[in-house]
C-alpha cells in the first residue's frame, strides 16, 4: 500500500480525483486491480472507491451505510444544495460573458483576466458578478470587479471545481468535479420531478 | 381616396423593395464573404455603401463588435438559396453531365468510324473535360463541407443555429452520396468497350476518384455526427444548468428528499466524510532512533535559521540595522587580519618595525589611531608564552605636565625567538 500512499491520502482527505487534477492517479484508478487493492485496504475504514456515471471522476464512498454515515450524507447534501444556486449561476454567467456554446466542462480553460475585462464592459454582467460574489458561498465584500472575480475563483479552487496550475498566473482549469455536480443536478431533477421548462427544450431541439 | 392611398403605398413598397434587392445584388460578393466568415470588416467597404446597407436593414453593427454582421433574415435568405441550389445542382448536373458524356462518346465513335482523326482528338478532349467537371463538382462540395466542419460552424453565432447548420450539412452529404450512386460503372464500361483511352478516362480514373470522394464523404459524415453529439450534449448541459438555476431562484426553500435514509442510497450521493491520517513521533522502535535523532537535529537547525530570519524580518529598520552590522563585522575582521599580517611581517624582520610605517607601506586604509589600538589589543590578546616572543616598545609622549596621561605616537614590535 506504500505504493499508493499519496493517492490514498488524497482520496481519504475527501478530494475528487480526475484526469485533470492528477493524471497519474487517475490512470491508476482506472485499473480494476488497483481499485480492488485499494478497496481491500479501505475495508476497515468503511470506505470504497466510487466513480460518477461515466467514470470520469473518482472519490470515496461508504462501504456500509450505517446511521452515522446516513447522518453525514444528509448534512453534506444540505451543504451541496446550499451552494448549488450560486454555482449554477456562476456557470451561466461565465457562459454568457465568454459567449461560448456550452457550459464549462472538465478540461476547459478559464482565463480570469479575459472574463474580468468582458465583465467590466457590461453593466448587466457586472451586476451578476456582484450578486454572485456577495452570496455567502463566495463571501466577497469587495467592490471592484477584479477583487470579486478573484475571490470567486479562489473559492471554486478551494472546493475543487477549478484548478490553478500556476499560483501567480490567473488562468484556471475546470476539473471533473463540475461533471459530478452536473450529474447530481440531473439526478435531482429526475428524482424530484422538477418541471424544468420543457417547451423551450422541445423547440430548441427541433 | 383609400384606393388611391393603397396604390400609392404599393408602388412605393415596390420601389423600395426593388431598390433594396438591387442593393443586395450589387454587393453580392461582399455579403457572401460576410455570410461565410461571420462578419464584415468595415474598413473594406466604402462608407457610402456601408450606410446604404445599414439603412436598408441588410447589415447591422452589434454594440460590442467592430465587425458588421448580416441581419438574420438575410443570412436565412442566403442559406435557403444556397441549399436549394446545391440540391438542384447536384442531381440535375450529374444526370446532365452523364448524358453529355454519353453524347461525346457516341460522337467519338462516329468520328473513328469515319476515320476523322481531328474530330477524334477533339471529342476525346471534351470527354476528358466533362469527366473533370463531374469530379471537381464533388471535390468542391466536399471541400466546402470540410471547411464548415473545421471552422466548427463558426459562421453562425449560437448553438441552435450550429445544430441546424450541421443537420443541413448532413443532408447535403446524403444528396452527394445519392448523386454518386447515379454513376453506373457497368454502363460506362459498356460505353468504353474496345477503346483503351476511353476505358482509362471513363472507368479506371473516374472509379478511383469517385471512391476517394465516397471515402471522404463518409469521413465527413462521421465527423459531423460526432460534432452533432457534442453540440447536443452542450445544449443539454446549458439547458439543465439554466433551468435548474431558474427553478432554484423561484423556489428558495426547495429541499431534496431524504436520499441518505433510503434503503438504496443513490450512488452519486454516497460521498464519504474525509479522514486525515495523522502520525506522531514514537520512541518504541530502537532501529528508528538514529533517524529520529537526525530529524531532531535538522529541526533545531531549521528553528535556528527561522529564529534568525524572524529577527531579520521583524521590520525594515531591523533589516537595515543587521545589514549595517554585517558590514561592520566584515571590516572588523579585515582589521584583525591586517594586524595579524603585521605580526607575521615582524617575525620575518630582525629589526623592530614601526606599526605606523607598516600601515603606510602596505597602503592600508585604517585610521592611525584605530590601527595602533588594534595592534595593542592583538598583542595583549596573545597567550602569555607567545607574548614573551615579542617586545613591544611604545613611542609615547606626555600630554601635559599636570597629569600622567601619555599619548602613544607609535608602536614598535620586535620578534625574538626564544
Please give a structural write-up.
The complex is a heterodimer of chains A (206) and B (418). Chain A has 206 residues and is mainly alpha-helical. Chain A has helices at residues 5-12, 23-29, 32-42, 67-98, 112-120, 123-134, 145-158, 177-191, 198-205; strands at residues 17-18, 47-51, 57-62, 109-111, 162-163, 171-174. The radius of gyration of chain B is 50 Å and the shape is elongated. Chains A and B meet through strand 3, helix 4, helix 8 and helix 9 of A and helix 6 and helix 8 of B.
Main sheet specs of chain A: 3 strands, antiparallel
Mean pLDDT of chain B: 81
The helix fraction of chain A, in percent, is: 55-70%
Across the major sheet of chain A, the strand order is 1-3-2
Number of strands of chain A: 6
Mean pLDDT of chain A: 85
Pick out the low-confidence regions of chain B.
Answer: none
Secondary-structure element pattern of chain B, one letter each: HHHEEHHHHHHHEHHHEE
- List low-confidence stretches of chain A: 201-206
Class of secondary structure makeup of chain A? mainly alpha
Query: How do the strands line up in the largest sheet of chain B?
Result: 3-5-4
Oligomeric state of this protein = heterodimer
Number of helices of chain B: 13
